[in-house]
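Replying to the earlier thread about multi-chain prediction with a worked example.

Input:
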Amino acid sequence: MKEYQTITEISGPLVFVETDEPVGYDEIVEIETTDGEIRRGQVLDSASDHVAIQTFEGTGGIDRDSSVRFLGETMKMPVTEDLLGRVLDGSGNPIDGGPDIVPDERRDIVGEAINPYSREYPEEFIQTGVSAIDGMNTLVRGQKLPIFSGSGLPHNDLALQIARQATVPEEEDGGDDDGSEFAVIFGAMGITAEEANEFMDDFERTGALERSVVFMNLADDPAVERTVTPRLALTTAEYLAFDKGYHVLVILTDMTNYCEALREIGAAREEVPGRRGYPGYMYTDLAQLYERAGRIKGEEGSVTQIPILTMPSDDITHPIPDLTGYITEGQILIDRDLNSQGVEPPVNVLPSLSRLMDDGIGEGLTRGDHGGVSDQIYAAYAEGEDLRDLVNIVGREALSERDNKYLDFADRFEEEFVQQGYDTNRDIEETLSIGWDLLSMLPREELNRVDEENIEEYYTDDEAETVEA
Amino acid sequence: MSQATESDVREDGVIESVSGPVVTAKDLGARMNDVVYVGHEGLMGEVIEIEGNLTTIQVYEETSGVSPGEPVESTGAPLSVDLGPGMLDSIYDGVQRPLDVLEEKMGSAFLDRGVDSPGIDLEKTWEFEPEVSEGDEVESGDIVGIVPETASIDHKVMVPPDYEGGEVVSVESGNFTVEETVVELDNGEEIQMRQEWPVREARPTVDKQTPTEPLTSGQRILDGLFPLAKGGTAAIPGPFGSGKTVAQQSLAKFADADIVVYIGCGERGNEMTEVIDDFPELPDPQTGNDLMARTCLIANTSNMPVAARESCVYTGITIAEFYRDMGYDVALMADSTSRWAEAMREISSRLEEMPGEEGYPAYLAARLSEFYERAGYFENINGTEGSVSVIGAVSPPGGDFSEPVTQNTLRIVKTFWALDADLAERRHFPAINWDESYSLYRDQLDPWFTDNVADDWPEQRQWAIDVLDEEGELQEIVQLVGKDALPEDQQLTLEVARFLKEAWLQQNALHDVDRYCPPEKTYEILGAIKTFNDEAFDALDAGVPVDEITDIDSLPRLNRIGTTPDDEAEEFVAELEDDITEELRSLY
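Result:
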């Protein structure tokens, strides 16, 4: 292996080296500083006489005398089933003091696109036990459904709750007990040590760790490494899902930090920036992560993704949530107002959406009335929300009896349906029956989105009787 | 290889540098836009810049591991598509490689690289029935025979546009592969079922005409308020979650085009899978055959290589033009043109070109208008008439319509369907905002609607627009003082507008009946609401309070017309109108 001592320029996370032999694009590089320390990096630009290298661990300590070795291969992730239960750093090295990893295989972390023709359309309901999700924005196996949050909001608690509770209610066919449980891949990018502890404590306390693989890039770890961490996590997820038949739930947090790292590299390379300084290829780059969720025809396993991102100043039009929303199949929105009202989890269902919901619910999957109930609650809650603005101006007395019912509905929806606490696990029957309790507040003829027969079966008339005109 | 484009001088080169999808090569004898094969793996690419001895190539596949010094080979021909029977009921990537064949060749569900495949099956035989006989004179573009391609579509075999034409000296009939000669001309030209055509070049036509026939979509808000013409152009911009893709898919399913080309450009993999799963199970509302029999899908999902995303819209429109040449009405959906523009931006930035607005290249507007101009109602060179209608989804960042792609698109297209996040949040679907949207085809299509649907179609529509306008203004007041503070007649207008929105504009894309609404039914529902309006105002004039008017028993049935089967709708509406009239008149 040829070693070069021909560094010409060091700038931010980038190192430029003169070479006399061709180097492959994306190849992995080792840079040995004069102190003998080894840094790793990746080829960003390869020309016949020089290359640009992006280092993962920062360029501090590298000088022009440092030696550079090209390893002749692109970045690989050693994968094996034994990774379950392990904690790795952001570059995939074990940090839990456990034994070395003996890989079955080393996989390219870039990952190839799934042929759309080979995909299986996701339509298996995942019960997260959270009413605001199961009832209103149902998650299905193979979906990518991000949590849009803001600084200081309890998105981690919700993610943990989902990781703990997520199951797929199987038909009664016996078989092994863990058949419907998920293997959890947790990819942390630039989160604080405290947050990391919170996750690890919860994993250990609930015993979830043994079916998890944890990748930790903390806030004080090198920023550039964050661009690799999710790829390592997803490569592991794909291996477990499509080679070993696991149903894998991937939680990536915080995508905002990932995008900051992309911007940092882009700026160092003096690229023409796109919106707010983020690189023009950020959509493609994010898509290459998010699209690694799904199901494949003829394969047992699946990859479901829940990326978490914090929206800078709660702005959903910021490039990070915006581009994410265009790629992912919906979003779950954490709301600051609901949080300050003490609603747990503070999910605002109105701007939230699950695009795959319609195919994952209904007769045989959840319950026949699910779609109608969800639509009706949406419409009623949206109307109640609108009326709240009006109440602020004219007061409640000025509103009609019908309007007041909708106002009460909106309040009770937040207090009883959304509010449940992080430790309550509600099955779908319970979620829907709370839904019907609420809908029964409204006059029967207002329920225009639910089928007549469902109203017949589930609507309880006692409260509505009095206003029947 | 197409006959006219073979280059005499070509030389192989070597890679000089690699940066993502952009590769430069030294000493390559290739012309602009020629297709080249890059590296030992033979990755497909296209020449996009020549500077001195250096040629810049955009590569349609992932370039990890490719290094300088590897060979580059030119094909001497620009990026072309194979045109011939077998394109319908197919699903392609952005450079017309059939995805099902790729799966088989790669033996994996993941897209490997360096695998090539012709766009149409070269082995398969088709039954060719000639339309010409020996001694006939044919010119370029003329139809020489027919191949039953799918249950719905007869494929017309044509003299390629770059042939001179002449006297037919031999003609075959029977089963042939697409590469076998079926007709021979006296000047030695041989005609096969397969043609090639460079994607970036529009196929020739005689004349572009003013479209006068609507492309009916089965969507009430579109047919009723903002119709698109056959050969017209439309844009659907909207923030994420506002239902762009559902709207595009509804159009692909129910538009009364002969052929549908659906391009998934830089969108979600699962969405394409949904189309692949759904379409074969749905009947074409015109023919009753399965929808795939008239559909060609192009899927270049967001994680597939960015350069192929740039080319997929061209691949799609070239296929559309080919069917137009046969005399068919083709509808092309591109979801989403923003991803195409972003692909241009990404390539442009790798080339270090001077950026225009928001980093997009300065030629963005030119490329967009070039593309949309390939739509139209044409007289073809063989004398038939055909059309290509283009419907482009636009995904403006943050839902802000002032961004360059939306703005440049709006300068070209004549129909604008603005999707609205507020409506979507209220689950008002299709979430098309009736205030912001427009169609410049309305007037030229009115004669068709008055002839084919109802004489008073334009008047009824205008009435609906007026009511919706008035409602918009009233709502602003309601926000301030509440509904009960309005005078009775305005309260009644609000009620009428509510039915317009709920029973007419809203349509459930998931309901078996409601998802497709023929123009006649669109007219009937509107008529029923108008009847209620007229009778209600009469009642109001006679002193009946609004509460009593809106409380009549038959009224909620207005909302059920949409879900009433088409053949029962007329009767249902007639009965309903009678009941409404009777009930209202009994109040005074």
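Residues 457-481 of chain B form the longest helix (25 residues).

Feel free to reuse this layout for your own posts.
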